[in-house]
Amino acid sequence: MDLNTPHDAAPEELTKALVDLLDVEEIDTDLYRGARQPGGVGRVFGGQVIAQALQAAQRSVDEPKVAHSLHAYFMRAGDETLPIVYRVVRDFEGRSFATRRVIAMQRGAPILNLAASFQVPEDGLAHQDAMPDVPPPESLVSDRDLRAASVDEIPEKYRRHMLRARPIEIRPVEQRSWAHPQPGEPRQASWFRLSSQIGGDAAMHRAILAYASDMTLLGTCTLPHGVNWMTSNLQTASLDHAIWFHEDFRVDDWLLYATDSPWAGHARGFNRGSIYARDGTLVASVAQEGLIRLRA
Q1: Would you call 288 a catalytic residue per the annotation?
Q2: How does strand 66-74 pair with strand 234-245?
Q3: Domain 11-122+137-294 carries which CATH code?
Q4: pLDDT tens across 57-115, in order?
Q5: Does 152 participate in catalysis according to the annotation?
């Protein structure tokens, strides 16, 4: 199943395609292969590389240790026509914590470096920020339906990409025009979930959240400037990405992704994200800096 398909594929098919994409293959000790996206012809989605690299790291760590954070740097654009090879380095193995480094490579060149830390679960002092007061997902319209309603405003070359069926359903809290972006506050929120149910493999749920965390985040720092990725002279790319996993969650239940951007400058924009479960539990935090370069 091609994740880029514009057709109304069944949610179960789309979900299986994403799970298969992120289910890395072990080809030798600490060496893994991540599948290419079927039908892909352009630059690899950053969330895919992060998720596959996290899966490779998770495969090298024994229970009961679980991933609690990752930090990644993008170096080169990935090629969707090729698989990605992931090499894991076991930097530390302690009683409570373990750390792994992962190098993602294509054609012998690194495209991403990722460091991940793992911890044996334990109790401790606890507090969290409150979830923003936003409408529930049932009262909102999916981003795909919003785009379909204004399809005449979308340039022909973008329509297939913007109207394709996707395994992650997103329902934005704020409705914005893709064709005519207007300056606004550097913050936004969206509900998201996997389009159908999957099993209880917590490592896969973390990988899928890592995949989804690269959606809607970078665009936050462009909001005050009235531009988006459809702006002809705007060049965008993720430069780095960090995730902290706080609590257990399921990606096939609704999660709220609240993002803000406190700073942009020097052709870079900084973005933060908080991911909440329906009951208000803060399950993950995200940070990313991205390239937002206006060309002449």
Answers
A1: yes
A2: antiparallel
A3: 2.40.160.210
A4: 999 999 999 999 999 999 999 999 999 999 999 999 999 999 999 999 999 999 999 99
A5: no
